[in-house]
Amino acid sequence: MNLTRRHMLLLLPAAAIAWKYVLAGTPEASPNYTMSQHWWGMLIDLPKCIGCGNCVRACQAENDVPDGYFRTWVERYHVSDYDIENPHVDSPDGGKKGFPLSKEEGGKNFFVPKLCNHCADSPCTQVCPVGATFISPDGVVLVDKTYCLGCRYCVQACPYGCRFIHPKTMTAEKCTLCYHRITKGLTTACCEACPTGARQLADLKNPNDPIHEFLKAHSVQVLKPYMATHSKVFYNELDGSVR
Amino acid sequence: MPGVEGFMYPNEVELQWSVLIVLYPFLTGLVAGAFILASLERVFHVEAVKPTYRLALLTALAFLLVAPLPLQLHLGHPERSYEMYLTPHRTSAMAMFGFVYLWYLMAVLLLEIWLDYRRDIVLLSQSATGWKRLIYRLMTLGSSNIRERALAIDERIGWLITLIGIPSAFLLHGYVGFIFGSVKANPWWSSPLMPVVFIFSAMVSGIAAVMLLYMLLTWLRKETIDMRCVDTVASYLFYTFIIDFSLEMLDLIHRIYEADESFRSLDFMVHTKLYMSHIVVQILLGTVTPILLLALTQVLRLGEMARKRIYAVAGCLTLIGIFAMRWNVVIGGQLFSKSFLGYTTYKMGLVTREGLLVAIVLTVLPLIILWVLVKLLPPWPEKSSGSLPDAAPVH
What we know:
The complex is a heterodimer of chains A (243) and B (395). Chain A is α+β, with helices and mostly antiparallel strands. Chain A has helices at residues 5-24, 54-63, 123-127, 153-157, 179-182, 189-193, 211-217; strands spanning 40-45, 72-79, 88-90, 108-115, 133-135, 141-143, 164-165, 172-173, 199-203, 220-221, 233-236. The N and C termini of chain B lie far apart (62 Å). Classes of the chains: A alpha+beta (243), B mainly alpha (395).
């Protein structure tokens, strides 16, 4: 076929438009990483959490999270002996600076770190009108910032309050499970900063990952199981009062 | 934290959907309702409502043209909204909006209005002068055949389009209801009744709006209001309103009786932050009062002036009530925490991108568009418009 000037005039603008999408679909280089070999999740060993806020600070520093918004945060629960269905919960500044002394007496106190649950059937992915939110083949729910409209439907659809709109980019933001780190063989910033090992990155496809032994031997639960989102953040000894 | 009571997840404190998203279902509802009223004459041959037929179509068009604007203004990246057409995500209820909207605008409303007005447009393109002549000539789309046979074909196609238009109108607004009703994370929204309630409330608001506009425009033109027409429209408003109210009460009673885990939180919200807008404005002022007023006109033999006044008051209250209903759905659904342990506050900006001023402009804009449309395509016989030669409407 002979390429005429007319053909070129037609093809060049089309190629220019297509190039944007070619570039947008190019993932950050990580030569030794094969997505299909992983299925990421996280284990939160609640009895080990001391509410120090290291994870929140590490996440903010690693991912440049703006003040007042949270990819991860820590809640403190106080459950009285007589009203377990109505706990008192606080999370001053997402627990970033730790917690002041509790004024509550009696009952029990414990900390619950929260983050995106990287649900296998995530409602946020389902509702995104353009598919800017997607589940990667290795099980991480991600947002394509170059594609997101900022319609906020995903923020409404998340049952766990894990999403927000970044005030500068005006696109949806959330925990990426430090995708830029885990694809290079590192752990997440929050797991690395946790002084007690309460947060552990888990690869459910790796038969040698300690998560398998842990899940066998402990009473583990996910948040709001009735939402049937197939959450992949597992909580050890999760109290029934946690929302 | 200011404006927060109890515990909110930290990212929940800021409301995501503002007054503009309240306007969106309100405007779309008026479109769907006005169209369904128009279809009464065209498909179901309710001759009494004929004087409102064309006005209803133009009202639907005016509001439909503005309906996507609040969405567009609300987006973080409005310049990317075309992506919904290019790469729609098939599992997203919102992704279909662009297609449902375009279908309704292009395939139903514009086509039906064009076919209905084609004879008038051709005649006006011959009689008008100056720039108006040019506009009318453009509007003929090159088709100037107004022989009887051609008009008969127009009539038949128009009827068919209206027939397709009725389920389309239901789709347009039922789908808006589904956007909210399908959010399982939010118990205030998540309900299979939501699309049905949205459709009936849309019919209520559209019928009330066209009734008010008809009365207002006729009064402004110093013509006589066709009481048989207004009485019929009002009776449709009354019966639709009863269905709408029954559905909403069914939803409410179901929630109260079931009293699931979200009930205490939602109940508290309705009795505190939403008390004024939900109980007082939506239910008492905007629903029960107009239903009682309309019931009076059904039961008692009232004089013409009394009926007119009642219809005017009931129509206005109805629109206020339906707007409050949209407000309570959209804003109310974001005031409580998904942890059911706390509440936040909505602070509406005044001159911000999603503030009160923009909302007022977007509410007035369809009325300005309607005014232009009415000037261009008079919805009433020529004797009062004065510009149409030999142009009794053909239908």
